[in-house]
Amino acid sequence: MPQGTITNLHIARVKGTPSDPVQKATAISGLGLEGDRSAYEGNTRQVLFVDKEILDGFGLEPGQVKENITVTGLNVAQVQPGQVFTIGDVTLEAVGDCEPCGKMDAIRLGLKDQLQGKRGMLAKVINGGGIKVGDSVRVE
To answer: Cys-Cys with 67: which of 49, 50, 58, 60 at CB 3.0–4.6 Å?
Structure first.
């Protein structure tokens, strides 16, 4: 079972503004990360995982592509919908790739096309709880 480590956490509080870096966050079952603008009933695109190696390869900073959880040592692109991310007692189910949008070209022209298949994996919170930078992430 693949495993990685959380290097960064971000909460996107307000649309169109930079995400806030945090050291810990609370995942809420069926909603997402507490305080994040994507944490609402009925949303399946609650949490975005991206691997730090992808960000580094494109010269991007953690949080810049609006991911919530940045991990190292785990190839997020290999995670399939239906697989489960486990962080301690917290579980999140992968729901699908995050397709790069036009906002990526606002960071750097051409980035949208460059990130095809590499922007990360969206997940929904199944079992909530606390997560923090440095926690291990397993995929089952």
So the answer is: 50
